[in-house]
Design goal:
Blueprint (H helix, E strand, L loop, with lengths): L1 E4 L5 H6 L4 E4 L1 H6 L11 H8 L4 H7 L4 H8 L2 H11 L2 E3 L6 H17 L4 E6 L6 E5 L2 E6 L5 E6 L8 E5 L8 E5 L4 E7 L4 E8 L13 E5 L6 E8 L2 E7 L8 E7 L4 E7 L7 E8 L2 E6 L8 E6 L9 E7 L9 E8 L12 E3 L5 E8 L3 E8 H5 L10 E2 L1 H8 E5 L9 E2 L2 E3 L9 E6 L15 E2 L3 E3 L10 E3 L3 E7 L6 E4 L3 E5 L5 E6 L1
Protein name: F-box domain-containing protein
InterPro entries: F-box-like_dom_sf, F-box_dom
Length: 517
């Protein structure tokens, strides 16, 4: 359906009254344009209305009639919004002209496509950090010895050089932290003397209590539990935590979700409430999470998707179970790790554009027995389609979802995260080619002009044969992506990635090399 203004008004009035639209089918509009007054609308009014629309609506409007299509085509600002949509981006505040913004976007695209960075900068880091993070253009690490210090490096961009801020003692012995620089937020997890687990919600810029937190220190009863193998994440106003409560592997998991702004405990699940063999936890959004489960011995493994209420205490609702590829009955899935790029509550400060949170890829690392590794890639939007499911949650066999909505590849062991940002993934270093960097971009539309089929554009299905591998049957997947390979001058042990940067870590793990695009 197409929304068309009811009556012709001066530009300011038309813009303010955009809520009053009549509904016409696209065929009707294109066949009888005068019936909805398109033919007598001045271009100025059309432009005023179009400037209030998002990229997807503008694309629809281009299909209405020639007048609308030409009006949009001839406006650089509207074309910029459409081009951002194609890259899954949201526009940030900018003093640049429309043509300058379009040029900046085109230059950024080409730089990533050709692997031609604008600058290369090195930063010293602690080689044995207690925890680290890379979010919103900031790399941070925290240590507990000899002091409980915290260092945040604002990484270089095309607009500014890097900046380092360090605090020698944050006053607590933090076990882990999560952060969102777009909210000026850092959350430290620690254990109090009264055997409570606590989250300290602080401002990143001052490390003082965060002004939006009604209770800057949020505590939960540990019930004599330990805090081991911690998975801590932040998504907007939600803190998510999965941890093991003892050294044993069975029956020792706990999931805690809190709203850090209101101080409300939302979810508190123990092993008795969880599926067997939970291996990993990931926040999909501020109202949903997934659990990766290896299952029993010889099980293929599953992904369980849950939704929850972000305002009050509630039991989360499992909305779907996605089965992984069936495996040989004599083999087993030992570990499953689900990793996505960070969820940023706001636009990145100083950036001309930022990746939309609904345009993210989930990289699922599958570790089978006999040291056999695979990586499975799935768009977040596929998970999110199940969030509106009511009633009995479906269990979806692999062959009903995987072949068309995923891509599986042979993998390698990873020991640092943040190798995913948005829909882009940097693959682990290949020991046989230590100077090679490989980037997978799942944010492409193969049919779009400019995305011509070539060696680097992978649109055809690929198959992992069952012979000699872990799987019971051939595993075929077809999610399209672009594969870029580049050789660097230096050797790195691992890579990280964000919107504007590729980051290499040296073999001593005491230096970052930041390539800025």
């Amino acid at each position: 359906m197409i929304f068309v203004p009811v009556e012709t008004r001066p530009l300011a009035q038309a813009a303010s009254a955009l809520g009053s639209w009549s509904i016409y089918s696209a065929d009707s509009v294109m066949t009888h344009p005068q019936s909805c007054l398109i033919g007598i609308l001045p271009v100025e009014i059309l432009l005023g209305c179009f400037h209030l629309l998002d990229g997807k609506s503008l694309v629809w409007c281009c299909s209405v009639c020639r007048v609308w299509r030409e009006t949009i085509k001839n406006c650089t600002e509207l074309n910029y919004i459409i081009e951002l949509l194609a890259d899954g981006m949201l526009p940030g505040p900018s003093s640049l002209s429309s043509s300058e913004k379009m040029e900046h976007l085109s230059t950024w695209r080409k730089a990533w496509h050709d692997m031609k960075w604008k600058s290369r900068t090195e930063f010293a880091i602690n080689e044995h950090p207690r925890a680290y993070e890379l979010v919103g253009g900031v790399f941070a690490q925290q240590n507990t010895w000899p002091e409980s210090d915290f260092t945040a490096i604002r990484l270089p961009s095309s607009q500014h050089s890097g900046e380092i801020a360090s605090t020698r003692n944050i006053g607590i012995e933090s076990l882990d932290f999560a952060m969102d620089p777009t909210q000026d937020l850092v959350v430290f997890l620690h254990r109090d003397q009264d055997d409570c687990g606590s989250f300290d919600c602080r401002s990143m810029s001052s490390l003082q209590p965060h002004p939006r937190a009604s209770t800057p220190r949020l505590s939960f009863d540990l019930r004599n539990d330990n805090l081991r193998r911690i998975f801590l994440q932040v998504a907007d106003d939600i803190i998510g935590l999965l941890f093991h409560t003892s050294l044993t592997t069975d029956g020792t998991l706990r999931v805690v979700l809190l709203n850090w702004c209101t101080g409300t405990m939302l979810v508190d699940l123990t092993s008795s409430n969880l599926s067997l063999s939970v291996s990993d936890f990931a926040l999909i959004s501020p109202c949903a999470f997934l659990l990766g489960c290896t299952g029993r011995r010889n099980s293929a493994g599953e992904i369980h998707i849950y939704r929850f209420q972000r305002t009050h205490h509630n039991d989360p609702t499992r909305v779907a179970t996605l089965e992984l590829p069936p495996i040989d009955p004599h083999r087993s899935l030992d570990r499953l790790i689900a990793h996505s790029g960070p969820f940023c509550a706001s636009l990145i400060a100083g950036a001309q554009f930022s990746k939309a949170n609904d345009k993210r890829i989930c990289a699922i690392s599958l570790a089978y027995d006999q040291a056999e590794f695979y990586s499975l890639y799935v768009h977040h939007r596929y998970f999110e389609r199940y969030l509106s499911v009511e009633g009995e949650p479906p269990t979806v066999p692999w062959d009903q979802w995987g072949p068309n909505h995923a891509r599986i590849m042979t993998g390698r062991h990873r020991f640092w995260l943040r190798y995913v940002h948005g829909e882009r993934v940097v693959r682990p270093v290949d020991p046989d080619h230590p100077t090679r960097v490989e980037i997978l971009d799942f944010g492409i539309t193969p049919s779009r002009p400019g995305n011509t089929v070539g060696p680097e554009l992978c649109v055809d299905p690929s198959t992992i044969p069952r012979d000699g591998h872990v799987f019971k049957d051939d595993v075929t997947t077809s999610l399209p992506y672009r594969h870029t390979v580049h050789y660097l001058d230096d050797h790195y042990i691992l890579f990280m990635i964000d919107q504007d940067r590729l980051i290499g870590v040296n073999e001593m793990v005491n230096k970052l090399t930041v390539y800025t695009f």
